[in-house]
Amino acid sequence: FPEKPVTLVVPFAPGGAIDVLARLLGDQASRALGQPVVIENRGGAAGLIGAASVARGDPDGYTLLLASAAQVTIAPWINRSLTFDPPKDLVPVAHLVDTPMVLVVSAGSHYDTVGDFVAAARAHRGGLNYASTGVGTISNLVMESLKLAADIDVVHVPYRGAAPALNDLQSGQVQAMFTSTASAATLVNAQKIRALAVTTRARSALLPDVMTMAEAGWPAAEVTVWMGIMAPVGMPPTVLRKLERVFVEASLAMEAREKLVKLGADPVGEGARQFADLIEKDLQLWQRVALASGVKVE
Predict the structure, then answer these.
(1) Are 226 and 67 contacting, i.e. CB atoms less than 8 angstroms apart?
(2) pTM exceeding the 0.90 threshold for the entire prediction
C-alpha cells in the first residue's frame, strides 16, 4: 500500500481555504506515499454529503476524508437528518491542524477584554447581540459554548457568511462575533476590529499577540476547532499506521508550515490515538452545548 492514487475527499467546494489546505497537505503526503493524493471536492450540507460518502466507502485506505468537528462531533447533536453516524462510521487517522476561532468586537467598542464583554452581558441580559455565519455553524456554537461557560444571555444574529457579519460588527450593529483567525487577521491588524481572545489551548500563530481564553480567565470556554484525516471504519491496521505517519509528517513539514499559518491553520500533527481522545472530549462538549442552546438544523 498504496498501489494506486489515494483520494482525499474535501467536503466543500473548491477554491476556499479548506480546499487550499487539503491540496497543500496532499502534495506533501504524495511524496511520502509514492502515489498521488487526488483531491475530490464533494460539497453540500455543511460538509455532510462528502463525509457520508466516505463513511460508506471501502475501508481499504484509498478513500479518506478531510474532516472537521462540524461533520464529526457537532452534527450528531444538532442535525435532524443525518444518514450516518460520524463517530462510529469513521475512524481517526491523524489530527493535522487546529483552526482557532477568535472573539472580536468593533474597534470602537468599550470591551477590551473577554471579562469586559461577559460583565456587560451579565449586566444587560438579552441586551447584547452577536453575529455568526449561520445557525449551527462553528461561529454560532463557539459563542454558545461561551454563553454556557459564563452564564450569559446574548442574542444570536445569523448572517450568510463572515464578510457581511464582520461589516456589521465594524459599524456596531452587532456587538461581538467568533470568527476564524484567517478572516479576522487583516481587520485586526488594520485596527478595524479588536481581538479579545482565541479559543484554542495555545495562541494562534497568525495572531500571536492575542491571548487564549484560558489566559483571559475563561478556561471553560476553550474550544479546539480541529481538522484531520478520517477513513471508513474497518481499515487494516498496517494501512492506518502508514497513513497516520505520512499525514502527521506532512502537517509538520517545515516547507508547509508558513503556508498553513497564512491559512489560519496551526500545525498539530498528532496520531490516531490522541485524535480519538480529542474526538471523544469534543463529542461531550458539543452535546452539552447543543442541549443548553437548543440549536438544531434540518
Answers:
(1) no
(2) yes
pLDDT in tens, 114-154: 999 999 999 999 999 999 999 999 999 999 999 999 999 99
Task: Give the whole-angstrom CA distance, residue 119 versus residue 134.
Answer: 25
